[in-house]
Amino acid sequence: MSDAKKPVPVENFKAQSNYLRGPIPAELVDGNAFFGKASIQLLKHHGTYQQDNREERTAREGMKSLKNFSFMVRSRVPGGKLTAEQLLAEIDLGDELGNSTLRITSRQGLQLHGVPKHSLRESIRRINAIKLTTLAACGDVERNVMCCPAPHHGDAIHQQLQDLADSIAHHLRPRSPAYYEIWLKDDASGEEQLVSQAGPNGHSHSTDGAPPSPSADPVEPIYGPTYLPRKFKTAIGLPHDNCVDLYANDLGFMAVVENGQITGYNVLVGGGMGVTPANKLTYPAVAKRMAFIQPDQVLDVATAIVKVQRDFGNRTDRKLARMKYLIAEWGLPRFKAKVEEYYGRPLSDPHPADVTGFDDHMGWHEQGDGRWFYGLNIENGRILDTDSLRLKTALRVVCRQLKPGIRLTAHQSLLFTDLHPDQRSTLESILTDHNVPLTEQISAVRRWSMACVAWPTCGLAITESERALPGLLDQLEVELARLGLARDVFTLRMTGCPNGCARPYNCDIGLVGKAADRYTILIGGRLLGDRLNVVYRDLVPLHEIVPTLLPLFAFFKAARQPDETFGDFCHRQGLDELTRFASQYAVPAAT
Ligand code: SRM
Ligand code: SF4
Fold first, then answer.
1. Are 144-173+228-359 and 446-584 the same fold in CATH?
2. Where are the domains of the chain?
3. Which SS3 state, helix, strand or coil, does residue 470 take?
4. Residue 398 above 80 pLDDT?
5. Which of 63-77, 112-126, 266-280 has the lowest mean pLDDT?
6. Atom 8 in ligand 1: which residue has the minimum CA distance?
7. Which CATH class is domain 446-584?
8. Which pTM value belongs to this model?
């Protein structure tokens, strides 16, 4: 990074904000429906984005188009673990203050959309009142920490992973009191509202980074006054169940399990999906395996890695500021050496264990304690009621009547947990009565797909995604059934722009919005998420995506090896062979 270059404006906004305050308090009460430039950037660290419904922009002759501003409010939920009361309250907030929907995100979080500025404070206060938080759900800090949500109580492992997710989230949270001052202080008494500031469930103990720095910032001992150069994402997973997509994260901890015990973690660094096509220096990356550490080293090693990115990540070009670019610039050995210097001790080489499986946890499973959990597939994570599907109402009834535990998955779906055997049929009846398809009734391709939000609220969307994928899957289901591939499992992920919010660059089929109504088709990644896919076709109109994929499925059907997955098949054949087959493929006549 050249010292001569100037920091980007966001860096100045952070530096001048007095630890994430800036003009937010004044602008919150200025009577406008929007915030200014600095506040917009700072607000992200408080968990909210200024947006507008892009379909409602009205162009008037001679005037700029008018935006109808509203806010997306994201809750950070480590490991996606919630209570029924918390889910109910978020659904209520969506109805009372938002656009009547709630969305489960691809990182086990929850989002309200369409919250007007005058309801922002109330929404954040009410989220804190139910012991959730929006702090650091977005912004240049540690984001929601993902971990496998399956409540397998037959082993101690899953509980340890959840405890670790809670510990990391708590340890790497911003410490500035700005969040509490701005959103939670009682105006009349000046008292802070009681919020969930209790420590985590007690995992490994940590200092605030080793070796202790004499110049540690008094307010933000880990981040300092300008926080990180960019967002930072951590996930914790298991080799046989990489349901959190470890390799797509800045930092991944893969538990190594021997004789039923976690003996340590492989540390993966530098994953990230975002691409800016206009900037040829940007690219998606799967993480690299850096080290093996003991469970009690996790917090300090995580802190050391965060501090290396804090001190050496690029602050002059946000497009190149993620940790993957620092690792690429330095090479892994130099990066590891710097982490060791910050940590204070050498780190072992990675354990040979690696990811071997991926479980979406859908359907019925015994928990190991006599109770059951049920994974319900929620199409693209959107919880809403329509004329035909009353999902939101069904979830309300389930939460009130059965009071299950709730876990959000990294595939935008949810698990109802801790159900007694005699509640199983009641759960299914409630869902069926509200026309909510049971997971078992959903095709494999739909179940293993996901789409990002995109239009109309995402300001960066180029194409449709969430609203386009269901129709595309309708067509694809017919073709896959015709080919006898209806039961094959492969991941299909769509995004409305190249930023990659549904992780489309390491799955079997990625569909990435590139220009109006046109998508890049990527193939050859896989469910395990440890390999990037490659561009098969660019700028394919939405209506031609299924016809473009069809020859590949026909080839797969004809030439696959036993148990070979679609992504592995495409990877083995290579682009030239796939293209050769597709060019000679004649679509069978309809019967
Ligand atoms: Fe994302 C920006 C939605 C997961 C990479 N993402 C955005 C914004 C905030 C658009 C913006 O900056 O104005 C989107 C808000 C849309 C809306 O209306 O809600 C947005 N991202 C989402 C969610 C809601 C997608 C979803 O459908 O579930 C996910 C929220 C997760 C959460 O709870 O925290 C979401 N975003 C991801 C992921 C997947 C992941 O983390 O596992 C990625 C790829 C992994 C990564 O970070 O590399 C991702 N989002 C991005 C990027 C590209 C970052 C980069 O390195 O270049 C942006 C753009 C940016 O940061 O400049 C972005
Ligand atoms: Fe928006 Fe692009 Fe992310 Fe989709 S991938 S939510 S369009 S930023």
1. yes
2. 1-141, 144-173+228-359, 363-442, 446-584
3. helix
4. yes
5. 63-77
6. 458
7. alpha beta
8. 0.95
DSSP 439: G
468-496 average pLDDT score: 98
CATH of 1-141, one of 1.10.10.10, 3.40.630.30, 3.30.70.3340, 3.90.190.20: 3.30.70.3340
Of 587 and 321, the one with more pLDDT: 321
CA 588 to chain centre: 40
Q: Retrieve residue 174's tokens.
A: 């911003």
Catalytic residues: 74, 143, 231, 233, 452, 458, 497, 501
Quick one: tokens of 434? Answer: 């509200």
With tokens 């994974």, the residue in question is 375
Which protein residue's CA is at the shortest distance from atom 42 of ligand 1? 107
Cis peptide before 212 (omega within 30 of 0): no
Ligand 2 center from residue 513 Cα (angstroms): 9
Mutation to probe ligand 1, out of 102, 380, 501 (largest number of atoms < 8 A from CB): 501
Q: CA dihedral in degrees (42, 112, 64, 466; nearest 10)?
A: 120
Gap between the Cα atoms of 512 and 111, Å rounded? 22
The pLDDT value given to residue 557: 97
Ligand 1 centroid–CA 60 distance in Å is 32
Structure tokens at 320: 């190149």
What CATH fold (topology level) applies to the domain 363-442?
Sulfite Reductase Hemoprotein; domain 2 (3.90.480)
Give the pLDDT band (50/70/90) at residue 201.
very low
Read off the pLDDT of residues 327-350 as tens digits, 9 standing for 90 and up. Answer: 999 999 999 999 999 999 999 999
Residue in 27, 3, 4 with CA at minimum distance from that of residue 17 = 27
Average confidence score pLDDT of the chain:
94
* Ligand that lies nearest to the alpha carbon of residue 382, given by its number in the listed order: 1
Rounded to a whole number of angstroms, the distance between the first and last alpha carbons of the chain is: 62
Helical ranges in 83-134 per DSSP H: 84-97, 120-129
Is any ligand 2 atom within 6 A of the Cβ of residue 460? yes
Ligand 1 touching residue 498 (CB < 6 A): no
What pLDDT, on the 0 to 100 scale, is given for residue 218? 95
Give the pLDDT confidence score for residue 190 in this predicted structure: 61
- Tell me: cis bond preceding 456? Omega within 30 of 0 counts: yes
Give the Å distance between the CA of 500 and the centre of ligand 1.
7
The SS3 of residue 282 is: coil
> Which residues lie closer than 8 Å to 479 by C-beta, 6 or more apart?
546, 550, 553
Give the mean model confidence (pLDDT) for residues 107-132. Answer: 98
Query: Under 8 Å CB-to-CB from 23, ≥6 apart: which residues?
Result: 35, 36, 38, 39
Would the pLDDT of 191 be above 80? no
Going by CATH, does the domain composed of 144-173+228-359 fall within 3.30.413.10?
yes
